[in-house]
Amino acid sequence: MLKIIIPTIMLMPLTWLSKKNMIWINTTTYSLLISLISLSLLNQPNNNSLNFSLMFFSDPLSAPLLVLTTWLLPLMLMASQHHLSKEPLIRKKLYITMLAMLQTFLIMTFTATELISFYILFEATLVPTLIIITRWGNQTERLNAGLYFLFYTLVGSLPLLVALISIQSLTGSLHFLLIQYWNQALPDSWSNIFLWLACMMAFMVKMPLYGLHLWLPKAHVEAPIAGSMVLAAILLKLGGYGMLRITMMLNPQTNFMAYPFLMLSLWGMIMTSSICLRQTDLKSLIAYSSVSHMALVIVAVLIQTPWSYMGATALMIAHGLTSSMLFCLANSNYERTHSRTMILARGLQTLLPLMAAWWLLASLTNLALPPSINLIGELFVVMSSFSWSNITIILMGANITITALYSLYMLITTQRGKYTHHINSIKPSFTRENALMALHMTPLLLLSLNPKIILGFTY
Amino acid sequence: MNPLILTIILMTVFLGTMIVMASSHWLMIWIGFEMNLLAIIPILMKKYNPRAMEASTKYFLTQATASMLLMMAIIINLMHSGQWTITKVFNPTASIIMTLALAMKLGLTPFHFWVPEVTQGISLTSGLILLTWQKLAPMSILYQISPSINLNILLTMAVLSILVGGWGGLNQTQLRKIMAYSSIAHMGWMTAILVYNPTLTMLNMLIYIMMTLTMFMLFIHSSSTTTLSLSHTWNKAPLITTLILITLLSMGGLPPLSGFMPKWMIIQELTKNSSIILPTLMAIMALLNLYFYTRLTYSTSLTMFPSTNNMKMKWQFETKQITLLPPLIIASSLLLPLTPMLSILD
């Protein structure tokens, strides 16, 4: 594991010591090399986890998330080149340092064995993200967005710290591998109900659950492109990953404690999808679409069946790639028109046809078109929730329809129709942007050929 | 001030605290406290204006009252145990009175009212000595009598201090008052764990002193006492803004900075002793503290407010030399990975 962590830490001296015309080249190249190394983790031979040391391990759940994290760093660097081009050199280096620091913490979080170490690194990812949102965002609202982001997550996760420490003092160890084997049912009592709540709320806020999702549209909209990409693709999945790990310890309370959150998620996914139909701000639409997809993941994790875990894992990876790609596409619009309003940049297919192809592919994967992995994830979740209770099929079906509606709404508004008269002087697509979209889309399409590597540990 | 006189006065302050920390006779402790108090008054009044005189008077009155209460507790202890040695205080009345006296000296709620006003009225360097050095002596006495302290009173004062320290700092723009409320809150954390594991009190004190030293030295370097003047440091010394960001987030207790270590250890000790609601409540109230630190970082390092052209040229006095700033910065932000070393303290 150190073969991934130490090169990522060394990306920071790399940026500070590079020459002015080499910073982007150096960092993007080396982060691509690191992501190549991480691909070897996908080879998980047997049902056990690969244990690298006492502190780091990787398992069929964390390996795809890890590969996604390392894959996304070069893409974030490529996407940030344009909006940072006018900044002084030191600020560019600071930005890349923040991204590298965030990457280090994320890699260590996904591979941590001890749950308290997981907690510390989970919280540690907040600091670079806060700095990226607040320092490099564009509107005044970014201050409020940073505060909401920080405080929602912290209020949710401080009870988690207390809960983890109390579990450790009662059972002796929080090492993940030990917990798997001598896990026993939690006795039924009021304090164990609060323990369940304390453990889960941190991840519910991070996912986010429908009632606690207020930070997400603010943070996603105000963040610069790299911040939006990492928030949507990885940080939300931290919540999903944490929930998948910690529900193992929380039976049998989950059988009845999960009901309120299931109801909130089932209702919330329809509400947030419907809100997407009425959004004028493009990034806000993609942010609410993230809430809707993550609500599906919450439903899957709380049902706790093998198929739902497969669906949750596949959906997390698929949504990470799709959502990040949609943010890159929205950013390419923003860099040209300096506005996030959708109707101000219509009819782009006439002006930028290749970008329209990427918009089409991204929208199609967002609405879970077969045979993409988005479909595999959603289908598994729908099937397992149907087996849990037949009525959920109505809500799930409605959600899939509304998802298709807003994805196509987004596609048609930005791409089709007559272009507006004021945007006929935009710059054509850069090769960098096309490469960015291709690098998002290629893993997505290739994974449809072999989805079993992202189906998690219940495959 | 004449350097010779300043040296003598500072040595007396130092000697007073040392006498308190090192003696085994209750009377010597009281003498140490009085020596400390009388010698620090001229330091608080270094800038001779009415505000500083008011601050020194308030400090003198509260500390003298506390010393008298301490003396009464000592005499009651003498009456009931017949000896002057420092051990745990056997008589409950004496113990309660002594705890209240030491809380008054430290600035715990409900005796916290003097801290913001005194800290605001004095210069930054005097405020530094007030908030760091002056806390050592009462804390060492609390450490020594910790087996006999009444838990109810101490925990009530601790939780109320964290609440007051968090809530009171929300409406402040003066940096010295912000540091004063931060000191009240941190004292609350320190005294909450005193009965369960006094070593963690000392750990928290150490890390708190390092972080407060760093903050004050950064303020002294940029000669800023208000949020407004702190927000101009991007112009004068941009590196200071990054350091302020890191240190403030560390004071707020965010991982992975070292300010998280005392909070984590205290929560761990409290939880192991089967109190669960208390550390949760304390941790959430510490978020109030984090709010106003984050707000301070917003105006200093994370944004650049629109400023008119003539504000960009700040008066450049000769750069004050800050001793020990780099090691202090490292100590106040990077110590978290060393947490497993705390096992040597057992």
TrEMBL record, chain A:
What Pfam families does UniProt report for this protein, alphabetically? Oxidored_q5_N, Proton_antipo_M
Q: Which residues form the NADH:quinone oxidoreductase/Mrp antiporter transmembrane domain?
A: 112-397
InterPro entries named among the record's database cross-references: NADH4_N, NADH_Q_OxRdtase_chainM/4, NADH_UbQ_OxRdtase, ND/Mrp_TM
Q: Which residues form the NADH:ubiquinone oxidoreductase chain 4 N-terminal domain?
A: 1-109
What membrane topology term does the record carry?
A: Multi-pass membrane protein
Q: Does the keyword Cell inner membrane apply?
A: no
**Reaction catalysed by this enzyme:** a ubiquinone + NADH + 5 H(+)(in) = a ubiquinol + NAD(+) + 4 H(+)(out)
One GO BP on record is: electron transport coupled proton transport
Indicate the principal place this protein occupies in or around the cell: mitochondrion
Superkingdom of the source species: Eukaryota
Instruction: List the EC numbers from the record.
Output: 7.1.1.2
TM stretches of this protein? 21-42, 54-73, 94-112, 118-137, 149-182, 194-216, 223-244, 256-277, 284-303, 309-330, 351-369, 389-412
User: Do the record's keywords include Flavoprotein?
Assistant: no
Tell me where in or outside the cell this protein is found: Mitochondrion membrane
GO cellular component terms attached to this protein's record: mitochondrial membrane
The protein's role, per its UniProt record? Core subunit of the mitochondrial membrane respiratory chain NADH dehydrogenase (Complex I) which catalyzes electron transfer from NADH through the respiratory chain, using ubiquinone as an electron acceptor. Essential for the catalytic activity and assembly of complex I.
Family statement: Belongs to the complex I subunit 4 family.
From the Swiss-Prot or TrEMBL record, give the protein name: NADH-ubiquinone oxidoreductase chain 4
Q: Which gene encodes it?
A: nad4
From TrEMBL, chain B:
Q: What is its EC number?
A: 7.1.1.2
Q: Which UniProt keywords apply?
A: Electron transport, Membrane, Mitochondrion, Mitochondrion inner membrane, NAD, Respiratory chain, Translocase, Transmembrane, Transmembrane helix, Transport, Ubiquinone
Q: What is its main location?
A: mitochondrion
Membrane-spanning ranges: 5-21, 27-45, 57-76, 96-115, 151-171, 202-221, 233-254, 274-294, 322-345
An individual GO BP term:
mitochondrial electron transport, NADH to ubiquinone
Residues of the NADH dehydrogenase subunit 2 C-terminal domain? 290-342
Isomerase found in the keyword field: no
Supply one GO molecular-function term.
NADH dehydrogenase (ubiquinone) activity
**What is the catalytic activity of this protein?**
a ubiquinone + NADH + 5 H(+)(in) = a ubiquinol + NAD(+) + 4 H(+)(out)
- Protein topology in the membrane: Multi-pass membrane protein
Q: Short name of one Pfam family for this protein?
A: NADH_dehy_S2_C
Q: Where in the cell is it found?
A: Mitochondrion inner membrane
Q: Which GO terms describe its cellular component?
A: mitochondrial inner membrane
Residue ranges of domain NADH:quinone oxidoreductase/Mrp antiporter transmembrane in the record? 23-285
Give the family per the record: Belongs to the complex I subunit 2 family.
What does the subunit comment say? Core subunit of respiratory chain NADH dehydrogenase (Complex I) which is composed of 45 different subunits. Interacts with TMEM242.
Functional summary from the UniProt entry = Core subunit of the mitochondrial membrane respiratory chain NADH dehydrogenase (Complex I) which catalyzes electron transfer from NADH through the respiratory chain, using ubiquinone as an electron acceptor. Essential for the catalytic activity and assembly of complex I.
Q: What is this protein called?
A: NADH-ubiquinone oxidoreductase chain 2
Q: Identify the taxonomic lineage of the organism of origin.
A: Eukaryota, Metazoa, Chordata, Craniata, Vertebrata
> What is the name of the gene encoding this protein?
ND2
